[in-house]
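User: hey, got a sec? need histidine kinase folded
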Amino acid sequence: MTTTGEDHVTARGGPWWWERRRSAVFDGGLALVSALECGLEGVPFAREAGIPAAAGIVFGVLAGSVLLVRRQWPIAVVLVAIAVTPASMGFLLGIVGLYSLAASDLPRRIIGSLAGMQMVGVLIVMFVRMRQDIAKEDVDVGDWIVPFASITTALGVTAPPLLLGLYVGARRRLMESLRERADSLERELQLLAERAEERAEWARSEERTRIAREMHDVVAHRVSLMVVHAAALQAVARKDPEKAVRNAALVGDMGRQALTELREMLGVLRSGGDGVRRRERASVPLAAVGVAAAAAASRAVDGAGGPGEGPSLSEIDELVGQSAAAGMVVDLSVVGESRAYAPEVEATAYRVVQEALTNVHKHAAGAKTYVRLAHRVSEIAMQVENEPPPEAASSAGLPSGGNGLVGMKERVSALGGVFVSGPTDAGGFRVSAVIPAS
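Assistant: Yep! Here you go:
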């Protein structure tokens, strides 16, 4: 049985056109037996033809040796078998040659034509030989005996090897087709495995990015307000003890809120890790588990209300009030009729305003800030713009990782919105976002 592709190249270990050495040895043995048979049958042929016996033997040996090339040139073998049929030689040559022809990949019409020629040749030779033998022996037989015996012999010599060769050839082609399909399936499975690994890596990367973004949203705003209140507390501790007490209480509240949100998120991550281990034991794909854990972490971080409940636009007033309590002059204006949006839309709008106010605390302490919300027919727009900070104002000294604007843009873009940020002509800074309502 032949092989294909790389296996075909690897399997070739025999000389010339043979794929294996044992195939070459087998064909060599057949050719040797056929040469001996034809050589022996060449003696009576030489006697009848009136030529030296040696010439008949050489002719028979050469004709029988053609069987050596039956795999490479089966047509030549069958033609030689047809040619030596009148000489009453090449019985093995004809049978094996016809089998090799039928088992090859040649068109069926060629196989049928050559098989028909060989059958007709055997039929004619048998008919003539039997008539001559009957006439020579002067035997009285029925007229139907010679045609019947000739037809039976011709069919017996040609039909079995032809049918066997066709069966073996069809089975070989079927096995090659199945092998090619198996190789193709193996390559596809390998490609799918590589893509699954890429998707799993992408999911893990997206999960890490999302968790980092949520951590930034939770920590940055609360801690920024705590730093601002701590600075105010330091400034008024001796001059206005009552205000210092209020600022200290605000710092404590902010710290407790930050710790509560961090505890909730870390709790979800721990439970998500247990879920991952349980699902791995249940043979669930890691990428799907990672995405589910990230989604659960996001729901927990976005708010404490419950699954699917996050910060909403109704909490914008409280958010602005916290910044005002920290000493920022904030002007909030709302245009249009307020209505409910999808939870992810409201959470994203809230986070954009929150991060923009956090950036004002970090980089423009003391600057007046304008927060504008616009409820439109099919979208919601928000803008946070601050004036240049007063010259006398000191920096809050808050570190910045440079990821706040990137995170806001990613959030808005994920919902199909538009995000723009940059300095204003007056020297301040503006953050604008438009998010589709659905």
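Quick note: The mean pLDDT is 80. Let me know if you need anything else on histidine kinase.
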